[in-house]
Amino acid sequence: ATTMTWAIAEFYCVSQGAHLVSIHSADEQNFVNSLISSFDYSAKPIWIGLNDLFHEGTFTWSDGSEVNFDFWNTGEPDDYGSRENCGQSSGPSFKWNDYSCTSSCPAVCAFSLTPEKTAR
Predict the structure, then answer these.
(1) Which UniProt keywords apply (predicted)?
(2) pTM flag (> 0.85)
(3) 41-92 pLDDT tens trace
(4) Is residue 71 assigned to a domain?
(5) Closest Cα to residue 87, out of 30, 31, 48?
(6) Which of 23, 41, 53, 117 is the most buried (most CB within 10 A)?
(7) C-alpha span between 39 and 37 (Å, rounded)
(8) 61 DSSP β-pair partners
(9) For the chain, what is the domain count?
């Protein structure tokens, strides 16, 4: 899989009409887990749309949706070294971790299934 920084991954997703994946329920988390597993990346970190780039400690989704579910690993987010601002899903449990945004990882993009309203 292609690896890239968090910002380049989000830019790539947007160029495809999507965003880095946002996760809002255990069912969605399980779906993302199975998607990652099907590509055999289960032990490698994968970028998701979480970040606290705009306000340290307040995580938001890159698609602007509400953060109404979390799956943080124990002790996370920890902003280790005061430089971890982007979210990833990693390890065999796919728990979330905050990580340096400039690291290179594969990513999961997600398209909205709700069509955009257009003016008539």
Answers:
(1) Disulfide bond
(2) yes
(3) 556 899 999 999 999 999 999 999 999 999 999 999 999 999 999 999 988 8
(4) yes
(5) 48
(6) 23
(7) 5
(8) 50
(9) 1
| Closest to 62 in 3D by CA, of 12, 114, 18, 19 | 19
Q: Look up the CATH number of the domain holding residue 46.
A: 3.10.100.10
Q: How far apart are CA 46 and CA 90, in angstroms?
A: 6
Q: Which two tokens stand for residue 59?
A: 């995580």
Does 118 fall in a domain? no
3-state secondary structure 15-76: HCCCEECCCCCHHHHHHHHHHHHHCCCCCCCEEEEEECCCCCCCCEECCCCCCCCCCECCCC
> Is 35 a member of any domain?
yes
Strand, coil or helix: 109? strand
Structural domain containing residue 19: 6-110
